[in-house]
Fold this protein.
Amino acid sequence: MSLLSVRNLSVRYGDLVGVSDVSLEVPEGGVVALLGSNGAGKTTTLNAIAGLVPTAGGSVTWQGADITGRPAFAVVGLGLALSPEGWRLFVQQTVEQNLRLGATVLADRKRLPVLLDRVFTLFPRLAERRRQRAGTLSGGERQMLAMGRALMSDPKLLMLDEPSLGLAPAVVETMYETLGRLRGEGLTLLLAEQAVELALEVADYAYVLQTGRTVLDGTAAKLADDEDVRRIYLGLETE
Amino acid sequence: MILLQVIVSGLLMGSVYALFSSGLTLIWGMMNVVNFAHGDFVMLAMYVAFFAFTLLKVGPLLFVPLAAALLFMLGVVVYLGLVRHVVRGPPLAQILGTFGLALVLRYAAFWAFTANFVSLPDNLVGGTFDIGGLRIEASRLLGGVLALVITIGMHLILTRTALGSRLLAVSEDRSAAMLMGIRPDRMQAIAWGFGAASTGIAGALIALFFYISPTVGESLALVAFVVVCLGGFGSVPGALIAGLAIGVIEALSGYLIGAVYKDVLVYSLFLIVLWVRPRGLMGTS
């Protein structure tokens, strides 16, 4: 059974259609990539799953229970955390305060130091900067903090919106190494990504979004090797 | 020596200004809403102190916390019953919402308590201290010191506790706060509770040495607006410094050029600061 399953999801912003028909499955322990160009509906899909935007139709099922339309503050408590587009850090607060805010839903407060240690082990840079305001961090550090903050709720599923956007290639590399480690620890990942090649390297299954619809899906290996798919849907040059 | 005396009494009054102004600045900082009923909250707190003393025969040790608790509840009720709904409307609805509330509270007070001025007996917190030639009434000393301690306490709650961090998170980014599992509505209700509780404590303290009437909140609200603009919208330390400054300026100008003209000086200075530094002393743009 899938951990998360989205069926025929649609979201409207007033008269604008955010996504019109998105369906996807995320199996437990899997890494699923959501691919597509800018404006294809990746962010809207993740935001709708997280409960940040209301859905106009379709359903979101989490561990067999229908959670469509639950507000974001309730969804995160179920074990789905989102590291949102643009990081959305609390820039006036310190790195540590941001991380502690991430643990708001933690029922067992004794777990908090353990999780804090885990984040500082994954990202030693954050440990060095723990008393600094989030607003003073570099782009790469902000991405680490956004990810660390999402991990502080001890989620079963971590959703990442464009973890590579606007970062230097070396930083992106480190980021993906970390994703690999998290995957090794058994965390389930759903990532929206424009950096297709990277995403297909770490993912085992991928969905392609085009103008608000899932138009294609398959194992990462299959999508990466299919020349037509690469050219038509992913905008990659073929050699 | 007289000048020092004037400055000290200005500081004591200013610290009470700082207390209820921090409540106003907290509410603004949380949700960009101006509470036009803030002065009338102070007025209600003064009546709470008055009736707690005259009807229940309790002193400041009990009526200050009582006023804080009652006003906290009022703040929460006002948020849940009124503010939460009007913030979804146009800006004018927000302004008229709390402005209308101010009028309702003020005229309800006329109706319930009549327009007569009342006051607590002078000797409730009796005596006058003589500190090296400075003569300070005990009631004003109590009011000033307690207000200062509570204002600093409020700042520490906002900056050093998990609750403060959550409140600030909601004011910084409501959606991101929701992603953390924080319920913005709950935090905003708490902010209104704290904001109103600050008027509860301040009002009960002012009642020790100030006349009480249904319109007393008007001039106090004006002071709070000046303090918040001067200190920077949303900044508690700013409100503290500006509150003390306004208290001293008021006392000095009252002494030097006469009580009638002191407001002219206070508000001229206020306009000059807004002209030179519109975000206030400690505000962020």
User: Anything to note?
Assistant: Chain B has one domain: 2-276. The beta strands of chain B are 128-131, 134-137. Chain B has eleven helices and two strands.
